[in-house]
Amino acid sequence: MATVRRVNARHHAPNGEQTPLIPVNICSAHQQRFLAVTIYGVLLALKAYTVILFYWCLLDALFFFGLYTLRIPWLQKSLWFWLLCFFVSCLINASLINPLWVYDVELRKHVYDVFSSSSLLIQQQYLRLRGEKVRAVSSEENIQIEDVRYNSSHIKGKHTVRLLPFASAKLNPDDERLCLQRNDKKKFIELPILFNRTYPYFITYSRVDFEAGAKTLHQFSSKDIEQHRIVDVIQDGVYVYIPINQPGAYRIEEASDEDEMGIKIYNRQEVIVYCPSAELVPKSDLSLCFDDVIEVDLVLE
Question: Where do the Nucleoporin POM152 N-terminal transmembrane domain residues begin and end (predicted)?
């Protein structure tokens, strides 16, 4: 009498694929794929509820790492494949949250630089294949001078830097009201100039006469400053006081320090005039009695 034995059928994984982490007799392959799609739909719903880039990328990382770990049939890919999927998903997430993020991180510039460098390397390899000598800047190889001279692209590493003056000069920084005494023309007033972070070596200022309209230049050197002792030292600079005894419109034209470095000049103009005055001038004799009327003129200057 023949003996009959029952043999459980085993699921054989497709060629080149490993055995799934969850056996197919517990959960079939198509059920595992259906669950993967369902979980991805749930993740999309969670993304719509919370719009945070880091949160979205974290969900994608967990999902792709889970697919790599579970080894679901027909979804078994290498680790590099899932890393690439994660990178692409991060780009898509960033584009959905902020479509202008490419301009914010200057990605276009970096991509252009990469393609420019790649094209230069390809051109050098092409010249080598043709037998021409190529000299790169870093490897000291021969290059064609004409290719560099008339190259439309900029040479990497070359930058133009414009150094702005570190110090500054400001005429009458506190906006003081200054005027000259009309009766004493020999008396000077001090016009303040604030120099920040420097000590002036010479100062050139201009004066425009109100009547003639002529512009004259005056120089004030460091010797004049030391001779007249018209310096007030503060924490970040000095106050220099220019002696003025004539009315006009004053402006700083140029200034420099001992190192002959330029000083930034604020565009300010100070108008110096005579101080206004008022006087009562009697028209009649001042020998008057009580309750007498006196006539006077008010003279304003």
Answer: 29-97
